[in-house]
Amino acid sequence: MDQLTDHAQQQFMKILSRYSEDTYFYLVRNYLGIVTTPFHKPQLTARLSQFFSQKAHRNRMLEMLDELDLVILSLLSVTGPLASEAVMDLLKGSYSYGTVLRRVANLQERLVLLTDEGNLIFNPILSDELAARCSLRPLFGEGEQQLSDSPYCGTEFIRAYLSLVAKESKATYRDEYTRLFPSFEPERLEQLFNALTQVLTQNLILTVEKKVSIDYNKAHALLRLDDHQLLCLLLCSQSSAAMKENTFSFCSDLLSYLKALTQVDTNSLKLLIRALSLKHGIAYDSEVLTNLSTWGVISLDGVWKVADVATEQPSNALLIDSDQTISYQGNRPKDDILYRFSFVEVLDRQKRYHITKESFLWALDSGLSYTEIEQYLQENSSSAMHSLLLKQLGMLNERYQAITVYDALLLNCDERTAHVVQNLPSLAEHRYKNISPTLFLMRRESEETWRQILVSAGLLVGATRSYEKIEVQKRKEALSFSLLLQGSERCRRCDLPKVNGQKPQVSPDEALKQEIELAPFTSAQKQDLLHRFQAKLILSSSQIVAQVINTAIEAGGFDYQGKVSLARQAAGRKDVALQLQLTDQELVVQALEVAYTVQREALLKVAVMPTMEVKILPISKIFLIRLVRFHVS
């Protein structure tokens, strides 16, 4: 055995050693045969490990996995270790509670799954082989594997949105915008526009109180994300647990799984969201589905079809027309600034922006220099295309530079103090301009900060003198934005199980069955062996020995005493459930106790799973009782 296998064996033995005595010896007797006394438990555990380490036995266990087995295993490959009750709860939309409970119990008895600290895990000896057989379908339904070309909120949309806000000087949706975004349905475009306005306003990228303004430093940081990371940020910003590290991992995994699935029905999508919520330890949020639709990640067309979210943004050359219209196809790179000095005209497969005097002045007013615009056009288009345009923009820039209007405070001081103001590094970002050696234009919004810097330098700073008092609100910094950026920058597509697995072909080993039927055993011994064979618990001829492990696992019809006996066996046991067939329904219960009426009629007090509602049932009214070992730790 190589080192990895030795480690797997040690894990296997460690987990088994923690099993309850009833469960442990049930498994030992099934796989190793009759246990004689005296026995040494660690030796028995080592023998079990050797039994399951044999390649023939491992292969047989894998060959007997059917479709429902693989659905359960694939679910655990998505969520990680999970309590059996959670598995049943997640799959109850596709299978009955009793069906999943019996199959989970069966996988535990087959030691395909082990229970470690209350959670189901893959048998360490088989973990690699089991993981290789896991797949996303049919766990999350069936469907064609083709991504949709439907539009979504990526960096291209946000640039166009910010360009439109700058042009309109407001962030209010209008029906006319549908012509700018022809690939979006009107209703979805309005939802997306309003949601984006809310997110950008919350994070102080957009201010829409009196006059709209855009914080281009924050916008630039946002647009440096790839579309996968950007959508993670947008989804997290709408989450009540937005600042939790696990929320980013959840959103990133969700987008990764959806892209792999390409399309999914509503029930499967809800299952995926719930499964990943459990994996990342966050509360299930029913609004996630709505938010995915709002941002355009999914669109409903019979089933939910997934948009082809790009992770790379290849650069494309710009085409400049004589009317100062600029167009391109594909996506611009992360640091693109076209949207800052031009207004969007259409965002479709062919994107088109238009440079106007107003758009150019907006860019200069917002802090973008003519030099930056000039360099951008020279690097992204041919000389024949940009030469005339740059001449026109250069003349506009000369006229613009002739007048400068500052909204600032005038700081007047003597020569000694002026030397301090000029040379203090901490004041540099608060100075707009030096008007003269002793006159400085200072930023109004940071007055409190630069006053404190002057006081700390030992200067006396009097009150601001003005003819009219103007109250300036200090702008609050959205602490959440930097955290959102940090979290989303770490988002990467995750490793996934393969989408489509091979259809299992389960065929019973008829030679083993025949060996049981021909064995010189009693009827009860053969019946017990055949039951375990049908339950896929017999892997080898070495298990075919003269013993009875399950004296009775079901009783029904007129076998009143058999039903009472099973009920009494299960009463008070936490590792056994009963499946009850009544005249009008099927229940899966934990038996609490068996009591008798004055007329000696047996009554079974039960807790109905999963709600654990307590009921009292006359055993004579129960058509069938089946015993299920559902929790083996």
Please explain how this structure is put together:
The protein has 633 residues and is of the alpha+beta class. It is built from 25 helices and 22 strands. The strands form 7 sheets. A 6-stranded antiparallel sheet has the order 17-22-18-19-20-21, with helices on both faces. Strands 9-10-12-11 form a 4-stranded antiparallel sheet. Strand 18 and strand 19 form a beta hairpin. Helix 12 crosses helix 22 and helix 18 runs antiparallel to helix 19. The radius of gyration is 35 Å and the shape is elongated. The relative contact order is 0.11. About 2% of the residues have low confidence.
Poorly predicted ranges: 469-479
Terminal Cα span: 28 Å
Helix content: 40-55%
**Which class of secondary structure composition applies to the elements?**
alpha+beta
| Overall outline | elongated
Fold topology:
Blueprint: H1 3-17, H2 21-32, H3 41-53, H4 55-63, H5 67-79, H6 84-91, H7 97-109, E1 113-116, E2 119-122, H8 127-133, E3 135-137, H9 155-168, H10 186-202, E4 206-207, E5 213-214, H11 216-223, H12 227-237, H13 245-261, E6 263-264, H14 266-280, H15 287-294, E7 298-301, E8 303-306, E9 319-320, E10 325-329, H16 338-341, E11 343-347, E12 350-354, H17 357-365, H18 370-380, H19 383-401, E13 408-412, H20 415-423, E14 431-436, E15 439-443, H21 447-456, H22 479-489, E16 498-500, H23 510-518, H24 523-534, E17 554-556, H25 560-570, E18 577-581, E19 586-596, E20 602-608, E21 613-618, E22 624-628
